[in-house]
Amino acid sequence: MSTLNLLVAVCTAYVFFLFFVAFAADRLALQGKKAWLRSPLIYTLSLSIYCTAWTFYGAVGSAARNGFEYLTIYLGPTIVMVSWWWLLRKLIRIGRTQKITSIADLISSRYGKSSLLAAGVTILAVIGTTPYIALQLQSVTLSFSVFAAQSDGLAAQDQARVALWLSLGLAVFTVLFGTRNLDAKERHDGVVMAIAVEAVVKLVALLSVGIFVVWGVSGGLTEALNRIDASEFGEWHTDRSRWAGLIFLSAAAFLCLPRTFQVLVVENDDESHLRTASWAFPLYLCLISLFVVPIAVVGLDIMPDGSNPDLFVLTIPLALGENGLAMLSFLGGFSSATSMVIVAAIALSTMVSNHIVMPIWLQLRPSGASVSGDVRAAVLMARRISIVGVVMLGYLYFRLSSGGEALASIGLVAFCGLAQVLPAMLGGMFWRGATRMGAFAGLTAGFAIWLYTLYLPSFGVGTILPVAIIDNGLFGLAWLKPDALFGIEGMDQLMHALLWSMLFNVVAFVGVSLVTFPSPLERLQAAQFVNIFEHSTNARSWSGGTAQTEDLMVMAQRILGAGEAQALFLRHARRQGARGNLPAPTPDFLEALERELGSSVGAATAHAMVGQITGGMAISVEDLMAVADETAQMLEYSARLKEQSEELSRTALELRNANQKLTRLSIQKDAFLSQISHELRTPMTSIRAFSEILRDTDQMTPNDQSRYASIIHDEAQRLTRLLDDLLDLSVVENGQVNLNLREGSLRDALDRAVSAAAIGEDGVQMAIERDMGREYIVLHTDLDRLSQVFINLIANARKYCDAQTPRLVIRVMQETDRVVIDFHDNGSGIAPDAVDMIFEKFARVSDQKAGGAGLGLAICRQVMTRLGGSVDYVPSSRGATFRVVLPYRIALAAQ
Amino acid sequence: MKRETDRPGSPTVFHERRTYRRRRVMDAARVAPILALILWSVPLIWPQTGDGTVSSATALIYIFAVWGGVILLTWGLSRLLADEVDEPPDTET
């Protein structure tokens, strides 16, 4: 049996073994024996999907060409794993809570379930992953040809056939074990188990070759190290920018590659597994890369010049006649390649079917998800076709690129492309202000620059990008040369592309996020993602509740399968306490249902499907406005209540004021009565006393008689005057007075008043100054009453003015709407504390000059009020000023 | 990060110290990747030519020694943080 035939036999046996492992794992999972299947160890080993054939073979090749640079590819993921506490734990919690099915789903879900973003990331992933799959096919065919070279060689035609059979086999495996069930939450136990086994094979193979090389060939560790120092490696010569840049790039890729995201987040069964993986996976990476340099050094030493260093892992054992070891090594490489293709195909098919095929399919069915068609079958079919499509795309790429050197460099090119998702991803996890437009702008900018500066040139000069563009730049602009943007020449092409694409990506992402405003759903999701540890419940609430549960049931059965859907509905019905088997379409239930569906078909699609049935699209602005309306109504109602209560308290206050006023009036009345009785009693007492004297005294001189009689007369007069005043006041106050309105001039009224009041009883004439010319104003008013007011004021001035030569100035001022008459004397005025009182009844400024009852000014005020004017005391620097104001209205009416 | 408030009635001194320790372990878990990054950035300052260039064997030993240290550190931290992470009680610890 030739080596090649043996190889094919071993290969087939190995594949059957993998089938068996996957099948057995699936069976065990069905029986519920998941404990061992889902151990932290299996999770850690499944992460090794990161190490593909490119790393298995390529690491040695890279070490032989570029020295230690290959290490960066493992250092990045190690740092990411060490960051498990603040980074991966959050990512996985988000993935589990939000039922994330892929990296595209994560981005879409975070940014308001944007279908556009999901499709964009999916396309990016497909573009970035297809060459990578081609790379795996190439590595397997290359390793085949190495064995074939031992016998009769492998024609190019046969190489292509190997690749074709391999891709077909992988597609079948992936379809079989990758689409057994739809719910991504149940995960692909068989696939994960197979990958874990392959991870062990990879590691054992590489370690075996390494141990063989170090102890078998070099003769011990010290000798191996000496050999390294003596070799071309010699000293540390690693490009610094590449060292730093590649660590970043591999870290980013570890997070963003669809296949690593699949095993890291989607297939994660238990967050605590991460705890083990945090140190175990770095250990795995460390062991994988441990013997790479010794192998490369020995290979460079013993292999003939011109042999491909990428295949040293295989060719060294073969050259040294260790066929068994070579076979193991081949299986290691085979494992790396197959596991990568399988998981990449699963991850990509999930993305393609959920974010490209299903949305289009739903769009093409105007009848909606619930009416016709078996969605479950459609989703599964879409996924199977996607798997075959993705693998075949890889095969096609392999054939077209004819597996040259160009393919070998595609690994890092793909890393760089997928790293463009990193800003949107991390931004979405840690920054609430990141918006969909920002993510879209960042992705677009980064993707475009990556495409132009790295991806398209990677096909070789003149393949896709014309030579003219590479030499002279786009549109002939030198600063747009794909390898020297903005005129910065001499950079490593990969670092150049990484720098500019990430720079523009981040700037566009942050800048656009800062200036755009997220939709309500986006903001809810942002809060959910960023504060995932604070609230792990789902905030995407459904409003309305018009959904028909039967319709939802029909749809859920199609996607989840009858048994599971019924179990789900029953569970929620029990939880709601419903009598039947169907729960009410409460927002809680709809949310849970959407999550379940989302884990099968992706969040955006599930959202759209439930939306089609419920008739509402999540929380729309309208919903929020409805909520706001309700709130507004509540506010209005409470405002009205508040108003009413304010009115009540106002009324109460008014009542209280009225009551106080009444009480005050009552007190005033009492005071008035006591005052009036006092005022009446004083003259009455003297009248009685003197009249008694007159009656009882016999011998009385006529002189005395007349004196006493005149006292009695005076007092009686005073009494009469008082009573007149009182009557007058009460008449005026009660509004019972009849105004005798007639026309007359103000001068006449003043003349009369002056002649009546200017000369007092003591005969002292008061000097009065008047400006006759200004006094000629015709009034239509009660002139008698007006004169009474003037008399009162003049008399008061005469009585109370304490100047040596009392003078009174009467000044008349005609204003636009009123006539103002000031009575200003040159006395000392009225004491400030007495000003308040002078218009009150019985108020007298001083007792010694008590001429009247103190009712004069009170009457004046009442009269003026009746006439529509006023009389006030105007404080002035010297003398007292009383101001009478007559509204011009009345004066006008007179003219 | 602030410590949890004292719960009256509980053995506060012990409780405080434990909580405090756990917070510091979390801090350590946060800075561990930075430490790894810094240590692996050291080769950036190694001279590329002339005197003092680092031999490949030394470089290899340095990088893998850091690697081993990082793995041990992460292992230790992950054990200390077991209570914080495990949703269902972990059978391992």
From TrEMBL, chain A:
Name of the protein described by the UniProt record: histidine kinase
Family statement drawn from the similarity comment of this UniProt entry: Belongs to the sodium:solute symporter (SSF) (TC 2.A.21) family.
GO cellular component, one term: membrane
Location(s), subcellular: Membrane
EC number annotated for this UniProt entry: 2.7.13.3
InterPro entries in the cross-refs: HATPase_C_sf, HATPase_dom, His_kinase_dom, HisK_dim/P_dom, HisK_dim/P_sf, Na/Glc_symporter_sf, Na/solute_symporter, Sensor_HK_Regulatory
Alphabetic keyword roster: Coiled coil, Kinase, Membrane, Phosphoprotein, Transferase, Transmembrane, Transmembrane helix, Two-component regulatory system
Transmembrane segments annotated in the record for this chain: 6-29, 41-64, 70-88, 116-135, 162-179, 191-217, 243-266, 278-299, 311-334, 341-361, 381-398, 410-431, 494-517
TrEMBL record, chain B:
Transmembrane segments: 28-47, 59-77
Tree of life domain: Bacteria
Alphabetical UniProt keywords: Membrane, Transmembrane, Transmembrane helix
Protein name (record): Uncharacterized protein
Organism: Marivita cryptomonadis
